[in-house]
């Protein structure tokens, strides 16, 4: 019988304190495991519920926690106990200014990477954060087997380069914590990132009870065509409604791997020598805002 990778999207509302989020997060992971999940994914900046807008900067910056602190260690230990991978998100204490980060633990509690959001929303409160410097992919040991997993966070979705780099580093599955309205254009971006890179993309958002969020967590499996079907298929295998809950997607990774062997997207026919402009800064670049930073 074919085994599918089960991804739990924890579309849950945060509490008012770190302690509340710890307790609710641990309980949600246990429920995800009870329902057979191989991986549990949190929405963006779970440690403080992404409560950075409409508050004094010094107040929310003080809520940053260390990557090696007790909050994170609790999820590391739980991953080991449950034998389930956990992608936990946090406002990470960092030299200079905090980071918007995701830490991925495998089912043995081994840390696979810490990813900090590269494309911080510098047009608003996130300008006070330290952007990440790279994108990471790791072999994640699951009960299904070893899969290549990468991550990007929310606004990273707006830049095709984010998912493209992850694909080039071998990512089969991209985890995307989120904290914004998932409307048609953003959902279309996720669909496109999955299609053009032949990669599965799992996004976890906050429910509609959280300000400026509306649920809509989703998984796109990255497979647009199958030999026995005429035309294309819908690669969206899960899209949650706005309600709070734990949503389980079943991903056929063997199907994705076979698809990558025969289809024409991703890295199959790229011509990198023609793309020099993508990394060259010039005086005539359009749409550059005066407040942009590197």
What's the layout of helices and strands?
Layout (H helix, E strand, L loop, with lengths): L4 E7 L6 H17 L4 E3 L15 H5 L8 H13 L2 E8 L6 E7 L5 E6 L20 E5 L4 E6 L8 H9 L4 E5 L6 H14 L2 E5 L13 E3 L15 E4 L5 E7 L1 H10 L32
Parallel strand pairs: 1-2, 2-3, 7-8, 8-9
Antiparallel strand pairs: 1-12, 3-4, 4-5, 6-7, 9-10, 10-11
Structural commentary:
This protein is α/β, with parallel strands linked by helices. The protein has one domain: Carbon-nitrogen hydrolase (Nitrilase/N-carbamoyl-D-aminoacid amidohydrolase, 4-Layer Sandwich), CATH 3.60.110.10. The protein is built from six helices and twelve strands. The strands form two sheets. It has a six-stranded mixed beta sheet. Strands 6-7-8-9-10-11 form a six-stranded mixed beta sheet, with helices on one face. The longest helix has 17 residues, at 18-34. The N and C termini lie far apart (50 Å). The mean pLDDT is 96.
How do you describe this structure in short?
This protein has 294 residues and is α/β, with parallel strands linked by helices. The chain contains six helices and twelve strands.
The total tally of domains equals 1
Indicate the percent of residues in helices.
Answer: 10-25%
Strand content: 15-25%
Strand numbers in spatial order across the main sheet: 5-4-3-2-1-12
* Number of separate helices: 6
Order of helices and strands: EHEHHEEEEEHEHEEEEH
Regarding CATH, which class? Alpha Beta
Number of strands: 12
* Straight-line N-to-C gap: 50 Å
Compute the gyration radius: what is it? 19 Å
**SS-based class:** alpha/beta
For this structure, what is the CATH homologous superfamily?
A: Carbon-nitrogen hydrolase
Mean pLDDT: 96
Looking at the structure, what is the overall shape? globular
CATH topology: Nitrilase/N-carbamoyl-D-aminoacid amidohydrolase
> Would you identify the regions where 5 or more consecutive residues have pLDDT less than 50?
none
